[in-house]
Amino acid sequence: PLALSAFSHAAMTDAGGGEDEGLWPLSRLLASLAAQEGPPPDRGFAVVVTTGAMNPPHRGHLQLLHQAKARLDAEGFTVLAAWMSPSHDAYVQPKAKSLKTPGLSSDF
Q1: I need a labelling partner for 74 at 20 to 30 A (CA). Which of 24, 63, 97, 102 fits?
Q2: CA dihedral in degrees (96, 101, 104, 105; nearest 10)?
Q3: Which segments of the chain are extended strands (E)?
Q4: According to the model, what pLDDT value does residue 8 have?
């Protein structure tokens, strides 16, 4: 936990302050790390992050996270957390327009 605590906490939280109010729920990640018992995993700890338009997010995106976790587990890593991080409107809207599909926005 010490190495993770030393990570830039300011980058993980918003100006409002609370850990769970930031873009990344740091408190959940730290709790997952603290709950680990026994010797460290063979290959280390991992966090799975997927990005993209996710317009709209669907079960396939969730399945991707589960499959990534299973693969990392099989390779000797311990996955502490997984996040989907949809792209911003400036990326999603032009992509949706070029594909002639509806573009869900943050204002939606």
Answers
A1: 24
A2: 40
A3: 44-52, 77-86
A4: 37
Long-range contacts of 86-93 (CB under 8 A, 24+ apart): 86/51, 86/52, 86/53, 86/54, 86/55, 86/57, 87/51, 87/52, 87/53, 87/54, 91/53, 92/53, 92/55
Q: How confident is the model at residue 23 (pLDDT cuts 50, 70, 90)?
A: low
pLDDT band at 108, cuts 50/70/90? low
Tokens of 41: 């995993």
Tell me the residue type at 74: A
Please give the pLDDT value at position 27: 83
pTM over 0.90: no
Paired tokens of 42:
């063979």
R_g over Cα of the chain = 17
Name the token pair of 1.
Answer: 């936990």
